[in-house]
Design brief:
The structure holds 2 protein chains of 2 kinds.
Chain A lengths: L1 E8 L4 E3 L19 H10 L8 E4 L4 E7 L2 E9 L2 E3 L2 E2 L6 E3 L4 E4 L4 E9 L33 E4 L9 E2 L10 E5 L8 H9 L2 E3 L7 E5 L14 E2 L4 E3 L7 E3 L6 E2 L3 E5 L4 H5 L6 E2 L1 E3 L2 H21 L1 E2 L7 H5 L13
Parallel strand pairs in A: 13-22
Antiparallel strand pairs in A: 1-4, 1-11, 2-3, 3-10, 4-9, 5-8, 5-10, 6-7, 6-9, 12-23, 13-20, 14-15, 14-21, 15-18, 16-19, 17-18, 17-20
Helix pairs in contact in A: 1-4
Chain B lengths: L5 E4 L4 E5 L6 H17 L4 E6 L3 E6 L6 H12 L11 E8 L7 H8 L3 H10 L2 E6 L6 E4 L14 E4 L3 E5 L2 E4 L4 E3 L2 E5 L20 E6 L2 H12 L6 E3 L2
Parallel strand pairs in B: 5-13
Antiparallel strand pairs in B: 1-2, 2-4, 3-4, 5-12, 5-14, 6-7, 6-13, 7-10, 8-11, 9-10, 9-12
Helix pairs in contact in B: 3-4
The chains are: A alpha+beta, B alpha+beta.
């Protein structure tokens, strides 16, 4: 076992895994990684299961130091400059760090959330089946809050393998974010549904792990904006009285009393999660059947990642070259 | 006559089974009966459920179950008789009413034309049903409020309200565990924590349980709050 210490961390940096399920009936939301695809890539590189816990690093800089033992890390998701004592590091490949090594990660230059996974995983006792931090609920392991300087995290030690590994980039997805209309699309006028699907929406600066607020045309309710509170899915788009939509993300409340016009399909949630404040997005409606085909395709991709991992041999190019430093997808906007 | 159940897709990994469109004990009982059927029969792919006032929210894995199959399963069950389960446990929650713990008590009194003491007496005399828990961990929506002390929600929600707040919003009253914004009126505070991630069990209330409030003094509140902070439940299960 090894230990790392957080030297510097921005406000949205926390330990996240696939999420905590089973307690939503008591109001405890699942939390979990905002971008489950990037979490999976980082984990699989270091030999962990795709949904295992990693450090989710928000858009601001983060620095940590190996305080005990040798660790092997992998990084995926939002692109940012990374160095260790002057040595430039790359995402999408495993990196061996020795005791005392310090890794500096700059602010994200593309995307929002970067995932830092460790060989042997993060060692902590799960609460209700998960390590995921839900800061508002005061739950998560080993710290029930966002990470702070001085925090120490126990991780599995690095194996003695000689070579490092890389994962080729996944194909990028472009175009509008796909949604399934409903469950309360009938609470909106036909004109509001049309405007919702036609507008260029801007992600507001008040967005966080709870939800992404969107700015655009005011959407009109057909039957008022109160419903009898019901359950809320990851990616549900609720429209309160202001007529400005809110996409509910990983730290959402479990139930709510505003009508939900649509839900972002799960295969497009990783792309949405990586869109910084100010990004322009557009929505396109698809059927549940299409959304489920895409969800299954994403599950196949995640399950197949481990077969894509390659050894970095003597003559093989490093992933930094292969990727051109573009890890999270170049699309800052999701329009046509 | 019971309304036709409706199955609504909520994206590709969840659906909502709506059994009606009102806040009503019998309807909520049927939601709990449907929820019990899910536990008993565990249809493939279902990850968890959220029983709410008049609907059951179902989270599922789209790799295991497709929407059409699950929707048909739930429509079939929702059309059955669905006998509401027997009432759950009854809980007694200590509450310190008014003053610093219930800053909206004077407003509730003036709005309803009752004295503060009468508002408290009526609130503490009620037997409430846990309709659902949601929004934030441990937030408990209770039905059964005396209509004479019902006051509409605030136009401008308060940015924060303390842990353990007991509040009134329209015909509902609620127990809130975590500090959070609220549009409801603060009538008192309970030292009991409906959610404590460091306690086993983390939660103890269930939908279908009933709740009574027992008025306590500020000193009793402080003493009980200390015990709750040490992991005690403080709310007691007893006879209705």
């Amino acid at each position: 076992m090894s230990t790392i210490e957080i030297i510097e961390a921005g406000p949205y940096t926390s330990i996240q895994d696939r999420g905590r399920f089973g307690e939503q009936r008591y109001g405890l939301g699942p939390a979990g990684a905002m971008d489950r695809l990037s979490l999976g890539i980082a984990n699989v590189l270091v030999g962990q299961a795709p949904g295992d816990a990693a450090i989710e690093i928000g858009p601001l800089p983060m620095t940590f130091r190996v305080t005990e033992g040798v660790v092997r890390i992998a990084v995926a998701g939002a692109v940012r400059g990374m160095t260790s004592d002057g040595r430039a590091l790359s995402g999408h490949e495993t990196i061996l760090l020795n005791e005392g090594d310090r890794v500096q990660m700059r602010a994200a230059s593309q995307g929002v959330f970067t995932y830092l996974a460790f060989e042997g995983g993060i060692r902590a006792e799960p609460v209700l089946g998960s390590l995921s931090v839900h800061a508002r609920a005061g739950i998560g392991c080993p710290y029930p809050r966002a990470l702070q300087p001085g925090d120490r995290i126990t991780v599995g030690g690095a194996s003695t393998r000689e070579t490092e590994r890389l994962l080729p980039p996944l194909a990028e997805t472009h175009g509008p974010l796909r949604v399934v209309l409903g469950p309360q699309d009938e609470h909106f006028t036909p004109a509001a549904i049309a405007a919702f699907l036609a507008a260029d929406w801007t992600i507001s600066s008040t967005s966080d792990r709870m939800g992404f607020r969107l700015e655009g045309p005011k959407l009109e309710h057909a039957k008022g904006f109160n419903i009898i509170s019901d359950g809320i899915a990851f990616g549900a788009i609720q429209v309160p009285g202001s007529g400005q939509p809110l996409v509910l993300m990983a730290d959402r409340g479990t139930t709510g009393g505003y009508p939900k016009i649509a839900v972002v399909i799960s295969a497009d949630l990783p792309r949405l999660a990586q869109m910084p404040v100010g990004s322009k997005i557009r929505f396109a409606a698809v059927s549940v059947a299409v959304a489920q085909l895409e969800a299954r395709a994403m599950a196949v991709t995640l399950a197949g990642l481990k077969d894509q991992v390659r050894e970095i041999g003597g003559g093989e190019l490093s992933s930094a070259f292969l990727l051109g430093a573009n890890l999270a997808g170049g699309a800052v906007d999701a329009l046509e | 006559m019971k309304p036709e159940p409706v199955i609504l897709p909520c994206g590709d990994s969840a659906l909502s089974v709506e059994l009606g469109a009102v806040i009503d004990e019998t309807l909520n009982g049927r939601v709990l009966a449907l929820d019990a059927l899910v536990t008993a029969e565990s249809p493939p792919g279902v990850i968890e459920t959220i029983p709410t006032y008049r609907s059951l929210f179902v989270v599922y894995d789209p790799v295991v179950a497709d929407y059409a199959t699950l929707a048909a399963w739930f429509l079939d069950r929702a059309n059955r008789a669905l006998t509401p389960p027997k009432p759950g446990r009854n809980w007694q929650f200590p509450v310190c009413y008014g003053a610093e713990h219930g800053i909206d008590l004077p407003f509730i009194a003036s709005r309803t034309g009752l004295s503060e003491a009468e508002v408290v007496r009526r609130h503490a005399a009620g037997l409430y049903r846990v309709y659902m828990m949601g929004f934030l961990p441990g937030f408990t929506y209770l039905g059964g409020l005396d209509a004479a002390i019902s006051v509409p929600r605030r136009d401008d929600p308060r940015l924060t309200s303390p842990t353990g707040t007991i509040s009134i919003g329209g015909i509902q009253t609620g127990i809130q565990c975590l500090a959070s914004p609220t549009g409801w009126h603060l009538i008192g505070r309970t030292p009991a924590r409906t959610y404590d991630p460091n306690r086993d069990p983390v939660f103890f209330l269930e939908p279908g349980d009933t709740v009574r409030f027992i008025a306590v003094s500020p000193d009793e509140f402080t003493a009980l709050e200390r015990r709750a902070a040490a992991g005690e439940r403080v709310a007691e299960a007893g006879n209705p």
